[in-house]
Write a structure and sequence with these properties.
single chain; about 250 residues; mainly alpha; 3-stranded antiparallel beta sheet; 3 strands; globular
């Protein structure tokens, strides 16, 4: 089994395999690589629909350059809490960022969201974010304004004028509820168009069906989010700081 980084030719073969609808395991078999290598490569570089061999190769070269720069700053730059593997953490952060981007989050906002999510405290200042992501304070300001507007982070003011940006356990619940409300609004607006277009006409029928469908989806999201909310506050089994909390009743 070959080791080392993927070559540009291998990335072209991955892109061809994805275009042909091949599974990751089949692409890996043809390249004599582990399936996990192919999965990580694709998810880190745009996902199956957005993977481009040339862009993936350039991004990998850029990441390697950044790692060399980080290493040159000394061993402290590579230290991670709890004995974590610094390289594995960086690779996972890139994967998580890619998934956020694929879900519709702009790139810088996705990077900030990933960075906050992977801190044990769940919070960082603007200066800390800029330093970790190696970007300008202006980029951080724009990103956190967007994320706060989406309900994905919140601000906490410390002594003086400094603020911290926080991802807490309830953020995802609030985001799901906001999504449900937005979906319900589209349903209601669609329903209003039925009378305008003339009930029974093809356009009105389409709008009525859209409204009924989105009503169902909105109600389902709301019900599921409320039922599952306590999962966000439950410690998984096997954690070192106490037994697991109650599990939601899905029955």
């Amino acid at each position: 089994m070959p080791g080392g980084r993927l070559t540009q030719q291998e990335r072209q073969q991955i892109a061809t395999g994805l275009a042909d609808g091949l599974a990751y395991a089949e692409i890996a078999r043809r390249l004599d690589r582990p399936t996990s290598t192919i999965t990580r490569e694709v998810m880190r570089n745009g996902g199956p629909a957005g993977y481009r061999a040339d862009l993936a190769h350039r991004a990998t070269e850029h990441r390697a350059h950044r790692r060399r720069q980080t290493a040159s700053r000394g061993p402290k730059a590579l230290q991670e809490e709890h004995g974590r593997d610094a390289e594995a953490v960086r690779a996972y952060e890139e994967t998580l960022t890619t998934v956020f981007i694929a879900s519709g989050t702009p790139k810088m906002m996705a990077r900030v969201m990933s960075c906050l999510t992977l801190t044990d405290s769940g919070s960082l200042t603007a200066a800390e974010l800029a330093r970790r992501l190696e970007v300008s304070p202006a980029s951080i300001s724009k990103a956190v304004t967007f994320l706060e507007g989406q309900g994905l982070i919140r601000r906490e003011r410390e002594e003086g004028r400094r603020e911290r940006y926080v991802v807490d356990d309830d953020i995802w619940h609030q985001s799901m509820m906001a999504s449900a409300r937005s979906t319900a609004q589209v349903a209601e607006t669609s329903r209003q168009g039925v009378g305008v277009m003339g009930r029974g006409t093809p356009a009105a029928t389409r709008l009525e069906n859209i409204a009924r469908y989105l009503d169902f989806i909105s109600e389902a999201i709301t019900r599921a989010a409320e039922q599952a909310r306590e999962v966000l506050h439950t410690k998984p089994e096997g954690t070192s700081d106490g037994p697991a909390g109650p599990r939601p009743d899905h029955g």
